[in-house]
Amino acid sequence: MMMENSHPVGDPLNEARNPSPMRAWLAVGSVTVGAFAFVTTEFLPVGLLPQVAQEFGVTPGTAGLMVTIPGVMAAISAPGMMLGAGRVDRRYILLILSVLLLTSNLISAFAPNFAVMLIGRAILGASLGGFWTLALAAAGRLVQPREAARATAMILAGVTFATVIGVPFGTFIASLASWRASFIATGILVTVAMVAQAILVPSLPSKAALRIADLFALLHRTHSRRSLIMVAFIFGAHFSSYTFIAPFLLQYADFSTESITWVLLGFGAIGFVSNFAVSATVTRNLKASLAAMVLMLMISLLMMPALRHSAPTVVAIVLAWGIAFGAIPLCLSLWIQKSTADLPEAGSALFVGIIQVAIAVGSSLGGRVVDRLGIPADFELGAVLALVGLAMLGSFLTRQRTLAQLLPREKGLEPDRTAAKAYK
Question: How far apart are CA 380 and CA 421, in angstroms?
Fold first, then answer.
């Protein structure tokens, strides 16, 4: 989710791109629908894992590759897309990525075997990483600069909404027809978003390109490296387990397919609420907020296998898990933004990339554990990863250092006092 330089107030290019407020907000809406479609497609297999595994004759752990492979591809394309795009009009890139997303859904829907399914998921990953490097950047450029925050919030609402109903949507469609129908329905949604973007999104010329030197500059900083590793462990804890939540509820907790849909809907809905609730307090004490959510995630993962025979308790644990993960992406995003305030584009690119690596490695490692030891053992693995992430968070100084302390000292240069104050 990389941020590019927005045109300033009064920039004629910005004014030309916004002939009317209505058209500008409709353009933002088209990107929001695209964000919803991307996130829904990404996590659709989570709710469909048992059905897909059964039809293709593979184990649930192997079926988890449907989440792993897109993560690997997205980790590569997140920084790679912008490094290779140069100054190509971002409107064309958004449309190309939408075409790739539609292709992915169609291949997945009509895949004759599991190998073809994975090809479709790989295409998703290639488009996914690129999309997140552009989506939020486009938000600030489609409207006037003073409205950029509202536009960004609108696109993020599309992402959050997808986490609320995306997976339950897929399982609901599958319960009515088949898992293939879920991919077809998502493909229709992608088509709507793509047509809307083609009509409404104006030209978005790039004024600057991401430099590979910026990425290495951040990776050379101890604080940035440790922060990214912490992000990897925390996201890995979630996705190594969440990938297999549907088969766990089906096989170990004796939930029906229909009840799993409602449980996952509850997971997403309470996560949606948690995201907004924590946003009101996270700026006052970021470290404490993040620690509380990671601790809740760890406890939830430990309790799920132990208390799986009580359906009401399992539902309560899933909801607690939803509260934790509903807030974790926001907390980690703010953590990275504040620690890379002088290089926001590079910071965002690395953040998106490391998340995708965590999704890929976490789900892959989780799949191996599931096939060899079972899903309860996989949840215990997730708890261990969360504990490592929590320990890394605790290793940071209790009193957060300012950005001026994080930046390498250069002779003749004064630290940016404004940025340093923002980091506190």
Answer: 40
C-alpha span between 56 and 115 (Å, rounded): 10
Q: Which of 399, 398, 385 is nearest to 230 (CA)?
A: 385
pLDDT tens readout for residues 35-83: 889 988 988 887 788 889 999 999 888 888 898 888 788 878 777 776 7
Name which of 246, 228, 263 is nearest 357 in CA terms.
228
Each residue's pLDDT tens digit, 322-345: 999 888 887 887 788 778 777 766
The model's pTM is 0.70
Please state, in angstroms and rounded to a whole number, the distance separating the CA atoms of residues 210 and 347: 11
**The domain made up of 1-209 is a member of CATH 3.40.50.300:** no
Q: Which CATH class is domain 211-424?
A: mainly alpha
CATH 1.20.1250.20 positions along the chain are 1-209, 211-424
User: In terms of C-beta density within 10 A (0-12 exposed, 13-18 middle, 19 or more buried), how is residue 336 classed?
Assistant: buried
